Amino acid sequence: MIMRREATGSRDWWRTGVIYQIYPRSFRDGNGDGIGDLFGVIEHLPYLSEMLGIEAIWLSPFYPSPMRDGGYDISDFTNVDPTFGDLATFRSLLTEAHRHGLKVLIDYVPNHTSDQHPWFVASRSARSHPLRDWYIWRDPRPDGSAPNNWVEETGNSVWEWEERTGQYYLHSHYVSQPDLNWRNPSVRAAMIDVLRFWLDLGVDGFRIDVPHLIMKDPQWRDNPPNPHPQANPYDRQHPLFHTQLHVYDRQHPDLHEVYREIRTVLDSYSGEYDHVMMGETEVCAWETWLRYYGQDQDEFHLPFHFQLIETPWQAGAIRSFVETFEQHLPMGAWPNYVLGNHDRPRLATRCGAEAVRIAAMLLLTLRGTPTLYYGEELGMPDVPVTPQQQQDPLGRDPTRTPMLWNAEPHAGFCPPQARPWLPVPSDYRTTNVATQLSAPHSTLNLYRRLVAYRRASEALCTGTYRSIPLSQEGCYAYLREAKGQRVLVALNLSAQEQVVSLSDLREGWVAISTELDRQEAIDPNRLLLRKHEGLLVELRG
Ligand code: GLC
Ligand code: CA
Asked: What pLDDT score does 122 carry?
């Protein structure tokens, strides 16, 4: 079945459309070297557009990079790494994507560069070099120790001593990723030019990497120790992050002015439709997080909220997060939900295989923009990686393994004679796009059905959200309403059959069950939910 796409053509397409994250190394190898590339993305645009029905792709970095941090260590912001193609390949990708009705968002990494970037090579060459101040260089303390106590991802100091010029430089991530000095106007101008470069080519927006990091305390004060240190079990990137309270190394209010400027640039390109700013904003106090929308909603359209990735898979916990989110949002600010990305364990591994279908229904029926990580539509789990196969020092490879296209060798990710850069799982012959497309009740077909339903439903796209109190533990239900259309979503996250009573609701029609095997009239007073089943019910009257 090919889905008919209704062009939404609306200005604020980003409120209603599904955004699909592609990790370019892992999507599809189009030139046979075992590494995914832009050719492979072009090949599969019809799948994304016609089969899945998403609205926009977001490409993780494809820029020239020594690849110490999966491409987030960039040595040239305005080019394509030869592994992925070249600028001409990217131009064809844009043209083709647009032809298929898809928007293209790309990653923008403002906080740091690779140490191989010519700017840093120049900056580290001499204290007197004009680009010295483009990065953050500081003298040691009088006893020779690092300028302050800030720690990076792994718990080591953010400061790296450079013997040759007798100063430390700051790196919030790996030693090979020096932070740019955004307080220097020339850096700011150069980085804004990077945005213009891609906007001029025709990209439709950006996902901004670690936006909370670009401005630090100008006095470089020590972070206080955390009196109640508690490790975040979902966070593979920052195993020792919790030992300090990160008061001074991030979230300096001066960063908002930068995002206002970036938004102005994006807005200047927004003609018929908006050019969109998404942000990898970290989970933090609501007050701090909400500021990323901008005081006059003049910063991020979609600051990601990652709380769902870190919420235990329990009805009560999920519901309470969604409600808090809804309550905190100021008028006009638009929510968004994320269940997975290239940094965190995949949902099927994190929450169990039985969570996959309910998660699909949740993500695609809540009020807010859904972002879908490639492979989640198949219910792909993390794939174990042996120490010999390991690429990422922080252990994020299992989440970044090749997309599973068909039952051919290497799951059709690369030609049979090539070796995929990360392994495919042993059961790829049963879990892949081709097999699931032909299995009527597959996870992929559930995603397709939900995306298609959502596209056509005013209630789901833009309608209001109201949760319904239920006495059954393990169940979560809510109503979405717009223009007389009422959709009830009832999710049973428990391993027992449950009968819920939604007594003030009248008759309804099950439009989608997560098992894809029920379409029937129901009595909302006695709604039977099988274990791990979710229902989307159209209400009459
Ligand atoms: C973001 C990226 C992650 C990367 C880090 C440093 O968190 O998602 O993959 O390691 O930034 O750029
Ligand atoms: Ca390739």
From this structure: 98
